[in-house]
Structure formats: C-alpha cells, structure tokens
C-alpha cells in the first residue's frame, strides 16, 4: 500500500501493522502530512467542535532524583536553582487560574521525595475542596501503586506519565541505568487500573529515535488506549548530555499528532509548549493537526526560569492572565475558541467506526 492508502486504512481500522508504521515514518511526504492533518482535523471538529480545552500547569517542584539525559532539571545539573512551592503558593496559582477560567490544574514536578503521599494528598484534597468543579491532573513521574491509589482517593482525576519510548534499548539510551521501561509500563498500567484518566506520550526526534522505535510507540499507544497523549518535539538543553543533539522535527511532530488523532478519535491531545517553542505557529499548527487541548503555565513568575526542561521554553515570561490571553487570541485566529470547563475524556460510540460513514 502507498502512504495515502495507509492513512486511509488507519482511519477505517484504527490499526496499522508494524511494517506499515515504519514505512509511513520512513517515507512520508508533505502531501501525506497534509492529508493526515485534514482527516485529523475533521475528526477533532466532529468530536469536539471547535472547542479547545485548556489546563493550567503548576510546576511545584524542580527537585528531581532522576538523571534523564534529555531533561534540564536532571539531578546532576548544578546550574539550576532548586525550589519547592508550599501549599499556600500552590493555592495562589490555582486561585489566579480559576479567576482566568481554568478548570483543570496540572500539578507537575520532578521526582521529589519531599512530596510524600501525605503531603500530596493534602494538596490534592485542598484544591478539590476549594474548587469542586475542577479536575486535578498529576504529573509526578514514577511512584508506587499504593501511592497512586492514595492520591486518587484524595481526589486526583488524571495522571500524565509519558512512556518516552516503547523500545527498550532506546529507553535505556535516554535514561540512567536505574530507570527501566518495564517499570514505566507497570506504572502506566497501575494508573489506568486505579481509575485515572491516564496519559502516555513521547518526545519526537529524541536522540536514538527511528521509524522503528516510533512504530513501537504507535503500537503501544494503540494497545494502551490512553485517555491523553503528550507529544512535543525534543529540544536540547545546554546543561545536559544531549546539548549538541538536533532538535526534533516540527513536521514529524505534526504528522504524529495527526496520526494519533486518527487512531484514537476521542483522545485528549495537547498542542504542547515544546511545539510552541520549536515554531512560533506551533500551537496553532497542532490544533490544525487534530489537537484539542492547550496547557498554559500557571507557575509563579519568579520560579519559571528554574523549570527549564529545554532551552528557550515559550511563555516563561508571562503571567497566568497573559498566558491564557495569548492562547485565546491564537485560537481565534484559526477559528477555534478556548472553553471554560473540565474537558474530561469521553468515549463516543463511534470510536471505532469509519469516520466517513
Ligand atoms: N525537550 C522536550 N521535551 C522534554 N521533556 C523533558 N525534557 C525535554 C526536552 N529536552 C518532556 C519529557 C517529559 C515531559 C515532562 O517533558 O517527555 O515527560
């Protein structure tokens, strides 16, 4: 089959074979990308209208016990001023967010043992008590099943944990030897079983990535059936072992986003900050390739410069209000609009039907 036919097949069957994915990633043209974008956009509009959900990210700690080779807040980067927000500061971020229409708060942080289950549960419960109409999303990396369960009990609704790559050798290339793909996969499985709306995902163009590893990613995503997928281009950070690596391709990122939308018509798919950093029009382009979520930053302005996962991160100098205002304008420019609301995952009954029927 040619690439066109493969994209049509994906749209009908929501599945491709490994070799078919490899072919697509190895040989796709601009025309293929545009075709996928059109189908993906049509699916997104059918399922979500021109509504864009927005989530506010609170980067509440940049302390991390891990040493991932791509990440600017890895443990061995001594050039980062480390910080933790206290409960009061976190609540102030949520208050500013709520006022500006945010109804999902994403607590994102490094793997920081100071935030025990007890402390996390206190924060989660406090947010849910103050804002019962809001969803809480966690993005805190790998923890035990019991920990995930306790935080779910405390009221957390969703969890983002990118798998980063579904290829074992590639995973080991990106991470220190203490980290294992099998553990990451177990965490993801536990999160879903516990009842979280769960997100996996990856960086596009990370060092060592290939059409073959991407094929494994797509097969994993199909099997896992996540409610969310986080996907942006890899961007080098100057204080990491990958400082001299090339940045991920924006075109490939957009192609992958469109393919994810076609494969999982109802998935919550953010147009990421990394995409907006790699290209001025990145976030708009993401939406035009089937994304339906945008995640502006709610962190206090004085700590943002210390939460640089990669160089030149977009939005680092904006307040909550400015951040959402820019998103609003960007979306209006392409005929979409941000809506106030939790924007939960919902699976429509036509999830596996031919989109053309
Ligand atoms: N470039 C792009 N994305 C990155 N992440 C971490 N470091 C980088 C980087 N240098 C992504 C990872 C992680 C998420 C929080 O941010 O995929 O899961």
Can you put this structure into words, describing what you see?
This protein is of the alpha/beta class and 357 residues long. 44% of the residues lie in helices and 12% in strands. It has helices at 3-13, 18-27, 30-48, 87-99, 117-130, 145-153, 168-174, 181-194, 211-224, 250-263, 273-278, 282-288, 301-304, 320-333, and strands at 51-54, 56-61, 104-109, 135-139, 158-160, 197-204, 228-233, 293-294, 337-339. The strands form two sheets. Strands 2-3-4-5-6-7 form a six-stranded parallel β-sheet. Helix 4 (87-99) links the parallel strand 2 and strand 3 (104-109). Helix 1 (3-13) runs parallel beside helix 3 (30-48), helix 5 runs parallel beside helix 6 (145-153) and helix 6 runs parallel beside helix 8 (181-194). The longest helix has 19 residues, at 30-48. Residues 352-357 have low confidence and may be disordered. Residues 70-71, 162, 164, 203, 232, 234-235, 237, 274, 309-310 line the site of 5'-deoxyadenosine.
């Amino acid at each position: 089959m040619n690439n066109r036919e493969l994209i049509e097949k994906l749209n009908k069957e929501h599945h491709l074979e490994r070799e078919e994915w490899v072919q697509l990633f190895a040989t796709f043209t601009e025309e293929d990308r545009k075709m996928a974008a059109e189908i993906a956009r049509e699916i997104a509009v059918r399922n979500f209208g021109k509504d864009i959900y927005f989530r506010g990210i609170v980067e509440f700690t940049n302390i991390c016990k891990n040493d991932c080779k791509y990440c600017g807040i890895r443990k061995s980067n001594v050039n980062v001023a480390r910080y933790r927000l206290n409960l009061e500061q976190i609540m102030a971020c949520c208050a500013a967010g709520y006022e500006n229409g945010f109804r999902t708060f994403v607590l994102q942080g490094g793997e920081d043992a100071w935030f025990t289950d007890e402390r996390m549960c206190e924060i989660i419960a406090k947010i849910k008590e103050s804002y019962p109409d809001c969803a809480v999303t966690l993005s805190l990396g790998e923890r035990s099943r019991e920990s995930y369960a306790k935080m779910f009990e405390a009221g957390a609704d969703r969890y983002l944990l990118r798998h980063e790559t579904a290829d074992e050798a590639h995973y080991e290339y990106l991470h220190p030897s203490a980290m294992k793909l099998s553990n990451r996969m177990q965490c993801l499985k536990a999160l879903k079983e516990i009842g979280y709306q769960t997100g996996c995902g990856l960086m596009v163009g990370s060092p060592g990535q290939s059409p073959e590893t991407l094929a494994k990613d797509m097969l994993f995503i199909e099997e896992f059936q996540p409610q969310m997928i986080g996907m942006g281009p890899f961007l080098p950070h100057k204080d990491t072992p990958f400082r001299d690596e090339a940045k991920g391709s924006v075109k490939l990122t957009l192609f992958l986003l469109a393919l994810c939308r076609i494969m999982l018509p109802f998935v919550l798919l953010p147009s990421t900050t990394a995409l907006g950093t790699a290209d001025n029009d990145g976030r708009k382009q993401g939406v035009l390739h089937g994304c339906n979520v945008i995640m502006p930053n709610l962190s206090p302005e004085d700590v943002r410069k210390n939460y640089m996962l990669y160089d030149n991160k977009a939005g680092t100098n904006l307040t909550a209000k400015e951040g959402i205002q820019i998103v609003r304008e960007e979306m209006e420019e392409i005929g979409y609009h941000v809506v106030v609301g939790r924007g939960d995952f919902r699976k429509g009954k036509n999830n596996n039907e031919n989109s053309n029927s």
